[in-house]
Amino acid sequence: MQLQNRIVHHPAFLAIIYAVLTLFISIRAYNAPGGEMPGFEGRVTAYNNYLIFSNSFGHLLEGKNLYSQYPSEQYDVFKYSPTFAMLFAPIAALPHGVGLSVWNLLNALVFLYAIKKLSLPPIRELGFGLLAIPEIFTTTSNSQSNLLIAGLLILAFVNLERGKIFLPILFISLTVYIKLFGVLFFALVLLYPQRLKMILTSCAVMFMLFILPIPFGGWERLFQHYQEYFGLLSGDHGYFVKYSVMGWFKSWFNWQPNKNSIVIIGLLIQCFPLLLRNHFDNRLFRTYYAASWLIWLVIFNHMAESATFIIAVAGIFLWYFSLPERKPWHIVVLAPVMLFTCLGPSDLYPKMWRMLIVETWQMKVFPCMVIWLICLAQLILPALKKTVSSRQTPAAP
């Protein structure tokens, strides 16, 4: 038993698990036979997302439209920035089998490094790392970038807590050039003393990352890339919704409100704690706020897929494992996250049940919504209670 405890708590234990899991998924995907998709002539590989990322650098190099269909090379289109296409160059230069493994390892190890940098007690760090495995499996099986985004945003929070300026700004900025919604995490900067310096640094870093692809076509081609990029993204704002607050409204109440209205309302609610300036010096306040943003970025994204939820789940675990004292009700609200959000799409359930849980009932998103509201309640209610209490206390004679 003592040897077992020593192995489990060894600093390399999680790293070995993550590396073995990631390599297993990568090798399996690379050797999978692929499948057919309507309207696509060839067979879609199990690592199609990786192919899209890898091919994007070649298209950037050749001055092609990054956001066109290339049916002879891949299924679907590239939906990331020109900067991401350029930063993918070192991996794109590798043979696909090697590059896929390197890409998935990069995602997993950045995420693990972020968990370790949270400086949680060993048992909590282990719990965080192990409970995240189902979501890691989902996003890695799709060779997605969401695990990397989650890791970078947690690292940004860690470095903000340590009084750093450049590193947290760089980490957040990198997520913006992967998926635009990361820009909202800049709101966290407002909780820290050197906010003006960080805002100026943000502008500088964002600009430097913006101009990185200039050697491949100059200013004119770069602006053209971004016109094509935003043109593509604007097409995502139809009535279609996936796993989100909007999808939940549609599923539970057969109500399809305007998506922009829901996002604006959600954003106003999410930004309300920024008015509670007297609580900015409380580490738990800042931690819960960072956690709530990680959840918000997913549940208010109408195009969120199953593989995106590692970001929200990372926020949920940041909240849960940072609680000073965990009570039975905390475990009660965490259980549906594990049963439905993390394991809902897995083979734990028969296929029919998976469809009901994830799509029909929107139970992948609902537990995340509940914990998002709990995070906000833990941020706002103590402040309101303190305000009411101070008003009721009679003034000293």
Short description:
This protein is mostly helical and 397 residues long. The chain folds into two domains: 229 residues, no CATH class; 150 residues, no CATH class. The chain is built from 19 helices and no strands.
List the helices and strands and how they pair.
Elements: H1 2-8, H2 13-31, H3 48-61, H4 82-87, H5 89-92, H6 96-117, H7 122-131, H8 133-141, H9 146-161, H10 166-176, H11 195-211, H12 218-234, H13 245-253, H14 259-271, H15 283-299, H16 310-322, H17 328-342, H18 351-360, H19 366-392
Helix pairs in contact: 2-6, 2-8, 6-9, 7-16, 9-10, 9-15, 9-16, 10-11, 15-16, 15-19, 16-17, 16-19, 17-19
Please, could you describe this protein's structure?
The structure is a single chain. The protein is mainly α. The protein folds into two domains: 7-235, no CATH class; 237-386, no CATH class. The chain has 19 helices and no strands. Helix 9 runs antiparallel to helix 10 (166-176), helix 15 packs antiparallel against helix 16 and helix 16 runs antiparallel to helix 17. The protein is globular. It starts with a helix and ends in a 5-residue tail after the last helix. The model has no long low-confidence stretch (mean pLDDT 92).
Number of helices: 19
C-alpha Rg, in Å? 22 Å
The span between the termini is: 65 Å
Strand content: under 5%
What is the averaged pLDDT score? 92
Overall 3D form? globular
> How is the main sheet built?
none
Query: Can you give the helix content as a percent range?
Result: 55-70%
Low-confidence stretches: none
The counted number of beta strands is 0
Tally of individual domains:
2
